[in-house]
C-alpha cells in the first residue's frame, strides 16, 4: 500500500454508454496485475454496473455506508466492501436505485478518507449526469479520465464541459477518445474533434479494442484485461491501457485537485 494514500482516479463522460464502466474495470485489472490494491467505488448510484459485472455480493452498498455514518453506526469501510480477487475490492452502488437519491454529496469526502490508506488506487466510476455527487467526485480526484466518442452531441457537450473545467481551473483531467465502442462512427477526424472540443486528445482507445462478444465476459464475471485470451489477441491495446494506468500513478505529472462546483 502507498504510504501517501491511494491515487484517486475518476472516469467521467458527458454521454451515457461511452465505455466508462468498461474502462474502470480494465484499469482495475491492470492494477491488479501490477499487484496494486484497488478499490472500485461505483458512483453510478442509480444504475451502477460494477458489482453485477464482477459477480460480487452487493448486499452492502454506498447507501449503507452513508446510512450508518449518519446514524453513528459506521465502524470500518471493510464492512461494506466486496472482494473480487486478492487485489480488487468493490464498494457497490445501491441495490435499490431509490436509495441513490438519499445519498448526500457531503459523504463522498468521508467515504474516500476512510479508504484512502487501505489502497494504492481508488477507481471511481461515475455517470454522465453532472449531479452534486459527480461534481464532488471530480473535485476529490487526483486525475479524471474524461471519455469522449465520435458523436456530434457528445462532442458538443464535451466542449461545454471542458469550458467548465477551464473556468474552474480543473487541470487534472485527460481526454480519452474511445473508438473501440462504436467502430462504425467516424464522422469527425481527430483534427475535427480537437477543433470542436478545443482541447487535445490525450489518449485514444483504438477501434482495434472492439470486442464483439464482450457481453460473454460480463456474463462470466471476467475483467477483459485479466483474461489471457484478450491479453494475447489485444496485446497492443492492453499495452496502451497499461501506459495510461501507469501515467495515472505518476505523482509528478498530475496536477493538484481543484473545485469544479
Ligand atoms: N471495447 C469494446 N468493445 C465492444 N463493446 C464495448 C467495448 N467497450 C464498451 N462496450 C460496450 O458498450 C456499452 C457501454 O459501455 P459501458 O457500460 O462501459 O459504458 P458507460 O459509459 O459506463 O455507460 P453508462 O453511461 O450507461 O454507465 C456496453 O454494452 C459495453 O459492453
Ligand atoms: Mg457505466
Summarize the structure in short.
The chain has 261 residues and is an alpha/beta fold. 37% of the residues lie in helices and 15% in strands.
Keywords:
10 helices, binds magnesium ion, Rossmann fold, alpha/beta
Based on CA atoms alone, the radius of gyration comes out at 17 Å
The CATH topology of the domain at 7-145 and 211-249 is given as Rossmann fold
**How does the major sheet shape up?**
8 strands, mixed
Estimated helix fraction: 25-40%
What does this structure look like?
- It is a single chain.
- The chain contains 10 helices and 8 strands.
- The chain is α/β, with parallel strands linked by helices and 261 residues long.
- It has a domain of 178 residues: Rossmann fold (3-Layer(aba) Sandwich), CATH 3.40.50.
- It has an 8-stranded mixed β-sheet, with helices on both faces.
- It is globular and about 55 Å long.
- The structure holds adenosine-5'-triphosphate and magnesium ion (MG).
Topology:
Elements: E1 7-13, H1 20-33, E2 38-42, H2 50-54, H3 62-70, E3 82-83, E4 88-91, H4 107-115, E5 121-125, H5 132-140, E6 143-148, H6 152-167, E7 173-178, H7 190-197, E8 203-205, H8 214-219, H9 228-233, H10 235-249
Helix pairs in contact: 1-10
Bound molecules: adenosine-5'-triphosphate and magnesium ion.
Magnesium ion is lined by residues 20-21, 44, 49, 125.
Amino acid at each position: 500500500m502507498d504510504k501517501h494514500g491511494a491515487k484517486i482516479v475518476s472516469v467521467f463522460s458527458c454521454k451515457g454508454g461511452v465505455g466508462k464502466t468498461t474502462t474502470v474495470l480494465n484499469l482495475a485489472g491492470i492494477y491488479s496485475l501490477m499487484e496494486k490494491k484497488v478499490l472500485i467505488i461505483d458512483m453510478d448510484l442509480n444504475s451502477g454496473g460494477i458489482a453485477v459485472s464482477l459477480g460480487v455480493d452487493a448486499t452492502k452498498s454506498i447507501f449503507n455506508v452513508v446510512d450508518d455514518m449518519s446514524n453513528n453506526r459506521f465502524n470500518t469501510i471493510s464492512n461494506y466492501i466486496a472482494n473480487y480477487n486478492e487485489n480488487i475490492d468493490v464498494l457497490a452502488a445501491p441495490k435499490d436505485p431509490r436509495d441513490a437519491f438519499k445519498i448526500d454529496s457531503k459523504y463522498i469526502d468521508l467515504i474516500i478518507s476512510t479508504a484512502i490508506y487501505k489502497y494504492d488506487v481508488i477507481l471511481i466510476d461515475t455517470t454522465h449526469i453532472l449531479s452534486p455527487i459527480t461534481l464532488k467526485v471530480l473535485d476529490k480526484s487526483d486525475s479524471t479520465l474524461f471519455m469522449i466518442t465520435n458523436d456530434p452531441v457528445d462532442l458538443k457537450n464535451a466542449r461545454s464541459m471542458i469550458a467548465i473545467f477551464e473556468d474552474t481551473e480543473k487541470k487534472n483531467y485527460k481526454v480519452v477518445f474511445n473508438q473501440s465502442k462504436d467502430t462504425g462512427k467516424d464522422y469527425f477526424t481527430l483534427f475535427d474533434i480537437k477543433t470542436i472540443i478545443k482541447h487535445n486528445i490525450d489518449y485514444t482507445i483504438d477501434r482495434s479494442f472492439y470486442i464483439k462478444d464482450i457481453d460473454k465476459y460480463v456474463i462470466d464475471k471476467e475483467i477483459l484485461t485479466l483474461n489471457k485470451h484478450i491479453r494475447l489477441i489485444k496485446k497492443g491495446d492492453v499495452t496502451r491501457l497499461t501506459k495510461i494506468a501507469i501515467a495515472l500513478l505518476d505523482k509528478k505529472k498530475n496536477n493538484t485537485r481543484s473545485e469544479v462546483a
